[in-house]
């Protein structure tokens, strides 16, 4: 056999090996989503782009729908958009977020709120909001709030453990395992062709998995959530390493366990059957696009539900879509806002003083 033929055969063999190894990494939908969710908790830094749109809001309740203020609010909220673009790093802990709020209708308005958070401080840029006059000397300034002081003012004790990202990630991993493990793959998970998933440009997904709930399985899904997932969640939250982080006492945990154990199953199931008369799930799905490193590079949620009262014909319909894209995962982040300078910062006392001069306090 000549050398040229040997080289061709080896090339073919290597090509097949690479393709087969790539295919082998494609997991069953449930296992893939579980692994991606866990990996998300291991991200030490990332850039994020999120959007939530209220696509539809219909309220057919005479005493409510006839109220002009409600009608105006519905008009503004329909097709309202909230965007959130930000960056995060775990060490040193820092997050920044640019939130955009866009309201539609005759009273359309848009404004932005910038936020920066460190381990013990949060900065919120005072926005310029149409129809809500704020003192000129505070607009554009960053309101600095100490997390410990905020906790004390609300009668709570601030624990640095609440900002412990490593412990928070571990806790989230256990919750995800408890949640996803109880749902059957054939009933609640399926794979979506990446070409049909509506992925934004730049998202290179090796696999797209969907978790879904329909009218046919919603009762079972809620039974699983209450009877199987909830007890596990309480047990996890009750672990000594998490209680302080969550601000819970052993009494809180014992009370939650007692309430779950005392749940009347017959009444609960009867309530679920009664709910079928009122609730219609047109869509409830979560698509997760998983990249080559098994990170959830993109995720979107679609919710479209209707609540109908058979006896009065009153109804409410809500349709929401949301998405989040993660970029530059575990890479050095170039923060755009950064920690605000002292000249751009005001305290809560200064803010309240300016507001009182305006007559808002």
From TrEMBL:
The coiled-coil regions, if any, are 239-266
Signal sequence segment: 1-21
Assigned keywords, A-Z: Coiled coil, Signal
Q: Which domain of life is it from?
A: Bacteria
Q: What is this protein called?
A: Lipoprotein
């Amino acid at each position: 056999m000549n050398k040229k033929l040997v080289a061709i055969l080896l090339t073919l063999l290597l090509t097949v090996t690479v393709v087969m190894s790539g295919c082998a990494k494609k997991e069953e939908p449930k296992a893939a989503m579980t692994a991606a969710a866990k990996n998300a908790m291991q991200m030490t830094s990332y850039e994020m782009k999120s959007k939530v749109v209220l696509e539809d809001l219909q309220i057919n309740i005479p005493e409510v729908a006839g109220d002009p203020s409600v009608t105006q609010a519905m008009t503004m909220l329909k097709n309202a958009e909230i965007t959130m673009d930000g960056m995060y790093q775990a060490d040193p802990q820092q997050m920044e977020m640019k939130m955009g709020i866009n309201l539609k209708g005759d009273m359309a308005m848009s404004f932005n709120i910038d936020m920066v958070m460190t381990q013990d401080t949060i900065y919120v840029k005072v926005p310029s909001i149409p129809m809500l006059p704020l003192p000129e000397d505070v607009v554009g300034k960053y309101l600095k709030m100490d997390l410990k002081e905020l906790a004390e003012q609300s009668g709570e004790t601030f624990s640095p453990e609440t900002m412990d990202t490593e412990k928070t990630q571990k806790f989230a991993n256990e919750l995800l395992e408890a949640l996803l493990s109880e749902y059957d793959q054939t009933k609640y998970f399926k794979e979506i062709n990446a070409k049909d998933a509506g992925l934004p440009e730049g998202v290179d997904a090796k696999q797209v998995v969907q978790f879904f709930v329909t009218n046919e399985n919603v009762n079972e899904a809620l039974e699983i959530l209450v009877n199987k997932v909830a007890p596990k969640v309480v047990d996890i939250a009750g672990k000594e390493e998490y209680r302080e982080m969550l601000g819970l006492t052993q009494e809180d945990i014992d009370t939650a366990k007692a309430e779950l154990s005392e749940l009347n199953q017959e009444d609960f199931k009867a309530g679920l059957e009664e709910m079928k008369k009122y609730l219609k799930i047109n869509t409830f799905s979560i698509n997760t696009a998983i990249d080559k490193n098994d990170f959830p590079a993109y995720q979107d949620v679609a919710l479209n539900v209707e609540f109908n009262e058979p006896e009065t014909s009153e109804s409410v319909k809500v349709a929401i879509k949301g998405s989040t894209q993660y970029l530059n995962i575990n890479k050095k982040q170039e923060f755009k806002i950064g920690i605000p300078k002292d000249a751009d910062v005001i305290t809560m006392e200064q803010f309240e003083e300016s507001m009182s001069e305006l007559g808002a306090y």
